[in-house]
Amino acid sequence: MGIFDLMSDGSHEELVFCENKAAGLRCIIAIHDTTLGPALGGCRMYPYKSEEEALIDVLRLSKGMTYKAAAAGLNLGGGKAVIIGDPKKDKTEMLFRAYGRFIESLNGRYITAEDAGTSVQDMEYLFMETKYVTGVAPAHGGSGDPSPVTAFGLFHGLIASVEQAFDRTFTEEEMQNLTRKAEADADPSDYTDRYRSLKGPSLEGLTVAVQGLGNVGSHLVGHLVDAGAHVLATDIDQEACDKVKAKFNCEIVAPDEIYGVECDIFSPCAMGAIINDQTIDQLKCKVVCGAANNQLAEARHGSILEEREIVYAPDYVVNAGGLVNVYVEMEGYVRKRALRMASQIYGNTQRVFEIAEKQDILTYVAADRLAEERIEQIGHIKKGFFGGI
Ligand code: NAD
After folding, report:
1. Which of 153, 284, 294, 311 is most buried (CB neighbours < 10 A)?
2. How far is CA 157 from CA 78, 110, 304, 314, 321, in A?
3. pLDDT tens-place string over residues 199-230
4. Which atom of ligand 1 lies nearest, measured to the CA of 290?
């Protein structure tokens, strides 16, 4: 299949092939759709076996970013970059600065960030060559680690899923209190007993199984325990389990037991394709809602969840807090604003469930509809005015 065939399949706008032999840089930047705003997405560094493999990955990932930004209500398009190389061996200042110069040449049509295989340190090198980079260190006015905001947004998606699957509703006041408490947490000078005693939504009586206690999962456990949920948690890294167990009142189970535990909500916060032929029959939950990207191994697994009456909260809707965080960084980072914006994931998730019910479609298809509708509507109002952003 030719490059244009691959591109038109995903309706991409532009592909940029970048090479700097001296720096050892071979990179592809994919700009999927800029209807809503500049294309933002991380830069993945991976030792792809072939150029085609890298190309397919960047096309798929950049399209995913368009949908994630649109469903989150952000004025961003979707883009992604891949650097062909081994992050353990091939990283140099020269390589990242060469990549930074290519980004600069796109004049803001693509804005980069960290992704698998790249780090805050690498973003620092990019920052020397271009201003179109997010996720830089707080010392440079950046937003730093996005995970606490991702976990906060995810918790809001989980609350909406609880309302959908169980006979529970939460008041606006309870939802507002969540944000008030988090804002006070973000600014400890503000953290008075008044905030500490605010009542958020209660998850008492519910059991949540959390897979993966890394950056996002460990923060999520904090929110869940705070809300009174019973938490069963696991990680393949014993140290991560010990840390979470020491900090929160939760139970640790073995990694291969997590799928089959008696629980109300399963929250995958480790890796993708986790809802697959091996795991799906083991699930005893009523909700799947987690941070991991691309949780359904195949689309048909979404249908199986539906048949089993398990509510699936689409991953890219509920894990958009990290993207919200870098979006706020573009405007001048304010943590409280990032938290408030991430709290909107509650309403976004409710909207997805509504669309799914009204149109009698699966929730992950409804998420795509929500994103596509917004792109179409905003595209219409932009038509004729300076041709875009
Ligand atoms: P992380 O690397 O900090 O944590 C992942 C954890 O999962 C690690 O502790 C790892 O040991 C554990 N793990 C891996 N395989 C496992 C298995 N089979 N069973 C149990 N535990 C296992 O990653 P993170 O930043 O917490 O992100 C978690 C997921 O959420 C990833 O899929 C990531 O792509 C996605 N995500 C993260 C963010 C963010 O802001 N960090 C934003 C959006 C999506």
Report:
1. 153
2. 22, 28, 21, 9, 10
3. 999 999 999 999 999 999 999 999 999 999 99
4. 30
